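Exercise 7b. Backbone tokens:
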């Protein structure tokens, strides 16, 4: 009946049309009521995030929306990649890893969780930077304010393959010199959460906490 990919597709279609914020929220609310109840149990308020490669000389920058995460990762046959990460113009770290996950609180229970990142309650206004299989164990996940602007620039060598993906549904290959800029979208997305169960009750059920 529906899932993350259907919600994302619906958002892209709504983004293409000149709808007011109230009309957009109403359309998503109706979609949630009839199709996405099982998915939105973990989501009371979700932010949308934009990611785009910049400084590409021969091709205009692309801009995409994401709900859960934006991932910069190596190709299937590529070796470990190196990424320079900055937040609000301040250098954070030079990551040697299989990739980097930039996740919203909503997306913290998706790929971020599998990669060892923290679970962030949806009403916490935060963003998580989680390296994927880092070369150095001291490269740990970092929680930053959701108002931050994150920039990730791969240091690409010959034959390196580096990709950026949005919610695991869309993406493309980066070129040498590309920089991915991630910031909060201008318009927030409001999702309906059933009031019959609390967030932590859903976590206990989905993650089977306390079961043997």
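Sequence design result:
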């Amino acid at each position: 009946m529906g899932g993350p990919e259907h919600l994302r597709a619906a958002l892209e279609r709504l983004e293409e049309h000149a709808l007011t914020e109230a009309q957009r929220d109403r359309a998503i609310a109706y979609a949630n009521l009839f199709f996405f109840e099982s998915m939105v149990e973990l989501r009371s308020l979700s932010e949308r995030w934009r990611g785009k490669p910049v400084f590409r000389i021969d091709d205009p920058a692309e801009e995409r929306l994401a709900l859960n995460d934006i991932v910069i990762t190596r190709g299937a046959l590529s070796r470990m990649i190196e990424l320079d990460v900055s937040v609000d113009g301040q250098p954070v770290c030079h990551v040697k890893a299989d990739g980097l996950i930039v996740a919203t609180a909503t997306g913290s229970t998706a790929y971020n969780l599998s990669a060892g990142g923290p679970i962030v309650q949806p009403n916490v206004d935060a963003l998580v930077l989680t390296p994927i299989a880092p070369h150095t164990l001291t490269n740990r996940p970092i929680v930053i304010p959701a108002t931050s602007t994150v920039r990730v620039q791969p240091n690409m060598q010959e034959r390196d393959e580096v990709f950026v993906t949005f919610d695991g549904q869309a993406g493309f290959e980066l070129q040498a010199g590309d920089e991915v800029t991630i910031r909060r979208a201008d318009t927030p997305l409001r999702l309906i959460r059933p009031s019959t169960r609390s967030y932590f009750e859903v976590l206990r059920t989905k993650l089977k906490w306390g079961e043997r």
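Instructor comment: Residues 5 and 169 are 7 Å apart (CA to CA). Residues 27-47, 52-58 have pLDDT under 50 and may be disordered.
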